[in-house]
Amino acid sequence: MAEFESLLAISGSPIAGDFTTIQNAGCLSTRLAIHYSPDALSRLIAFKNMSNDPPWRNPDWVAHTQIMLDSFQHFVGHELITRSGQPVEDARIVFDAPFVVVSHGIQDDPILNYGNRTALSLWEMDVPIFTSTPSRLTAESLHRDERAALMSRAARDGFVDDYRGIRISRSGQRFLIEQAIIWNLINAQGEPMGQAATFSQWKPLTE
Asked: What is the β-pairing status of strands 31-36 and 159-168?
């Protein structure tokens, strides 16, 4: 079976329509019920087994950060950050940046595979939860067609730099993002690796 339902320990409130509260489930009383691919669950288990080191020290995150930075320069035409020449230090700079950086993979229903500290705070998730979440769930259901069209435009053109739209956090907080850049990710061989996004302007919505 390509996908199967897993229960993921998580604190906080579920998002109506996408998340289900499951009672009496392990050490935490609230759990997230989503259909995850085996690949996503493997990643979740790996993160839960990581040490207490910050995620940017993880070699996979260091390598992925280089792909994001190289791809940004390739498609957008300038650097996302002032690069240090040291991949681990670049990974720290991106993770601790005051702006959002996120990315997803190349699955049919792409799974988020990177979120920096600002993104994790904004979406109110930790690394294991964030990197096991389908990226479409970062938007409300009524805004997902708009988001899908945007991703298709970025895939066609290499990047877009004029996006504004509404997103939703784990607790249900809606926020408007503006001047977002979305760009394609490729490896050194030019093979597709997903898409990434960055933005520094957002505001909470009360209605």
From this structure: unpaired
Where do the domains of the chain lie, and which CATH numbers do they carry?
Answer: 39-204 (3.30.450.20)
Q: What predicted TM-score, i.e. pTM, was given to this entire model?
A: 0.74
By three-state DSSP, how is residue 182 classified? Answer: strand
Residue 159 · residue 190 · CB < 8 Å: no
| Residue closest to 144 by CA, chosen among 3, 56, 18 | 18
Per-residue pLDDT of the chain (207 residues; tens, 9 = 90+): 232 233 233 333 333 333 332 222 232 222 333 344 445 445 544 544 444 789 999 999 999 999 999 999 999 999 999 999 999 999 999 999 999 999 999 998 999 999 999 999 999 999 999 999 999 888 877 667 777 777 788 788 889 998 888 899 999 999 999 999 999 999 999 999 999 999 999 999 986
Measured between alpha carbons, how far is 23 from 161 in angstroms, rounded to an integer? 43
* CA distances in angstroms from 159 to 3, 75, 106, 131, 190, listed in the order given: 30, 6, 16, 22, 15
Q: Give the residue ranges of DSSP H helices in 49-196.
A: 59-76, 87-95, 117-123, 127-130, 144-157
